[in-house]
Amino acid sequence: MAETKREIERKYEATTGSGVPDLTRVPDVATVVDEGVVELDATYHDTPDLRLAADSITLRRRTGGSDEGWHLKFPVAVGVRDEIRAPLSDTLPPDLAALLRSRVRGGEVVPVVRLRSARDVRRLLDADGGLLAELSVDTVRARRLPGGPRASWTEIEVEAADDADPGILDAVEKRLRKAGVRPAHAPSKLARALAETAPEAHGPDSPPPAAPGTAGAAVLAYVRKQAEAIVALDPAVRRDLPDAVHQLRVACRRLRSALKTYRSVLDRRATDPLGAELKWLAGELGVARDQEVLAARLRARLDDVPRPLRRGPVKARLRIWDTARTKAARRRALAALDSDRHLALLDRLDALLADPPLRKAASRDAAKVLARAVRKDRARLAARVDRALSLAPGHERDLALHEARKAAKRARYAADAARPTLGKSAKKVSKRVKKVQSLLGEHQDGVVARATLRDLAAQAHAAGETAFTWGLLYGREEAAADAAERGLPEVWARAASR
Predict the structure, then answer these.
(1) What are residue 313's phi and psi, to 5 degrees?
(2) For residues 350 and 224, is the Cβ–Cβ distance under 8 A?
(3) I want to staple 72 with a disulfide (CB 3.0 to 4.6 A). Which of 84, 169, 186, 283 is the partner?
(4) How far is residue 36's CA from residue 19's CA, in Å, rounded to a whole number?
(5) Contact criterion met (CB below 8 Å) for 113 and 29
């Protein structure tokens, strides 16, 4: 993977008469070193319909300066972006192209704007000569490509040094404001260039597919939110960011659940095939997520065992088991994201949102339709919990509790989707059902852990090692599952109360 850098910066308008004040009056700034002017030439790339810009993503090929090459920037928070760099080349590097795949898909990335900047750089140093921040005055000339309108402006950019306290930006901003310098309206040079060189718009905007306040509008807003999350989390999984696999899997599950719960709003003849594809993607991602959860659980369980009871190389065996399975699971997740099937799913989600298969209930009052759907999912959960509790402990009950857990998850997701419409009542349902889901999830995790512990015990025995510790952990998991089953009636009673 290409080099990644966290970029924390702020931009300001440089108007006539608003020069750079004396920055040595900024707390902690002892010296300002003038580095001179450097010429930068950057060509920004995007799809012809500017999909990257729509998500505040920038892709550029830049020459000049100390960091020339390809730069891909993803937004993290206001004023914070992750910049992924690759060496200068004539074509887009494959690593960066992969990170754009969920947005570009089968389309092409083309030059859209050229920016040539004269950058006057100042380095802000502390008393020990350490770099706190870098301030530059950029004189920018922009041109829409190919051969389109031009624009020019001057701006001030302040970027915190890699290891510096980001609070330095607040101190510099206070000094700049006193000198009459104000924050820039555009979040980036590209955003400003696109706005100032945009061709004149023609034609009326398309009307929304469902009227505000209707069930159709409420459900489509939730569907759109989850579909956008799937697209946005694709590159996060590829970058192996913390919790990215889990969040992408949750987005798939939430969307699939919504398509099932709100079948009175969206025609299932169109949504059921989408649900099947979402189930496939969540399943491929689930291998990695389940392994992550299971390994963390077993490590924690093993750490709780007193040292005299850890017989044999148990930690080494667990580590080897986890490493092999984690690598295989990640390969499987990336293969799914690289597949044509994944891209087809994203295209079908776009098509669903562009021309939603609305049913008669979509035009009705959102509160009534969504409340009815939430009640229906709660009733479904109640039936599954009652069935599970009616069974004797054992394999059949474990399966029934797992089915109840899935119903709890669906009921919770249904309530979450309805929260913008139903407010506190939906929040209350979600909170109560989540406790049921968590308890049932703990039980299911224990079922899976016991199966794995049996396998590890068998491997240890075959290698001539004692299986004592694995058996001990198995017994503890069994006791924890029993405790979860005994606690379910009380937790469910509270969740089912009005």
Answers:
(1) -80, 60
(2) no
(3) 84
(4) 16
(5) no
DSSP SS3 for 128: coil
pLDDT digits (tens, 9 = 90+) for 423-454: 999 999 999 999 999 999 999 999 999 999 99
Closest CA to 100 of 50, 136, 146, 154: 50
Interior CA angle at 272 toward 269 and 276, to 5°?
150
63 phi and psi, to 5 degrees? Answer: -115, 155
User: Per-residue DSSP letters for 424-471?
Assistant: HHHHHHHHHHHHHHHHHHHHHHHHHHHHHHHHHHHHHHHTT---HHHH
pLDDT digits (tens, 9 = 90+) for 362-381: 999 999 999 999 999 999 99
Sequence-distant (6+) residues with CB within 8 A of 170 are none
Q: Which two tokens stand for residue 188?
A: 């980036």
What is the Cα–Cα distance from 420 to 414, expressed in whole angstroms? 12
CA atoms within a 13 Å half-sphere pointing along the CA-CB vector of 200: 1
259 contacts 271 by C-beta, under 8 angstroms:
yes
CA 457 from chain centre, in angstroms, equals: 37
Neighbours of 496 (CB within 10 A): 15
Is 481:310 a contact under the CB 8 Å cutoff? no
Cβ-based burial of 34 (10 A; exposed 0-12, middle 13-18, buried ≥19): exposed
Task: Give strand pairing partners of 135.
Answer: 122, 158
CA–CA gap between residue 259 and residue 31 (Å, rounded): 60
pLDDT value of position 1: 52
Strands 31-46 and 150-160: unpaired
